[in-house]
Design brief:
By secondary structure, this protein is of the alpha/beta class. The chain is 48% helix and 16% strand. It folds into two domains: 199 residues, 2-enoyl-CoA Hydratase, Chain A, domain 1 (Alpha-Beta Complex); 52 residues. Helix 4 crosses helix 6.
């Protein structure tokens, strides 16, 4: 049964998904990924949810691949690994990046390996002071960072730091992660969830389309020159203002999603 591997809670209009294999530091097993996929779909379809927080139970956020489940006959292991990533792991990252409401990662402890990719797929990252980021792929395993880690890291911290983190495999502390721009804030461990849920509640009051528009605008900025981006911005204002956006929040402080 996979139902206990990821837990779902509600704090008003904020959904919280918790990786829940703390005895093993929340590795990305097939079962955990399947449960996470199903809960993401359920949250996406629930129009009463206005923001999502992803976190872990225990001492870790997520320590990456479940190497035990991948052990055994090495013949065909590369093919099986790639197929699992294409069929299950990668779609999770794309689902987070295309989520219709803001996504906040509350990194409660170690984010290692592919767990880094999951954490950085969120719109906003908040880290507990005891947390850290760790990339063992190249120095320990001779493989490249995955689940979008190479894509996120270069954009957040620059090529030099991204390559050094990948090659050296040194732990990046929560404080340094915040200084480098991997996280919005580094907070005391006891304050992590209240800070993350507080941010999520604030974002839940945004106009329904705001997070999607922000993602698309900054994605466009990464590939556009200045003149192209200015034109993009003007085009979006033409569309949004022209159809009556921005939405004015209702009495509850939030606009209906959709």
């Amino acid at each position: 049964m996979n139902d206990d591997l990821v837990l779902m809670e509600r704090e008003g209009d904020v959904a919280i998904l918790r990786f829940n294999d703390p005895g093993r530091l929340n590795p990305i097993s097939i079962g955990l990924q399947q449960r996470f996929r199903d809960l993401l779909a359920a949250v996406r379809d629930d129009r009463s949810v206005r923001a999502l927080v992803v976190t872990g139970n225990g001492k870790a956020f997520c320590v990456g691949a479940d190497l035990k489940s991948m052990s055994g006959d090495s013949e065909g292991l590369g093919d099986r690994t790639a197929e699992m990533m294409l069929d299950l792991s990668n779609p999770l990252i794309l689902a987070l990046r295309d989520f219709p409401v803001p996504v906040i990662s509350a990194v409660n402890g170690a984010a290692a390996g592919a767990g880094v990719g999951i954490a950085l797929a969120a719109d906003v990252v908040v880290v507990a002071r005891s947390a850290y980021f760790y990339l063992p792929f190249l120095p320990r395993l001779g493989i490249v960072p995955d689940l979008g880690t190479t894509w996120f890291l270069e954009r957040l911290v620059g090529r030099s730091r991204a390559v050094a983190m990948s090659l050296l495999g040194e732990r990046l502390s929560a404080e340094q992660a915040a200084q480098w721009g991997l996280a919005w804030a580094c907070v005391d461990d006891a304050s992590l969830m209240s800070e993350a849920v507080g941010l999520a509640s604030r974002m839940a009051r945004l106009p329904a389309h705001a997070v999607v528009e922000a993602r698309r605008a900054f994605d466009a900025a990464e590939r556009n020159g200045l003149a192209e981006q200015l034109a993009y911005e003007a085009g979006r204002q033409r569309e949004l203002v022209g159809r009556g956006r921005p939405i004015v929040p209702g009495p509850s402080g939030s606009a209906d999603r959709g």
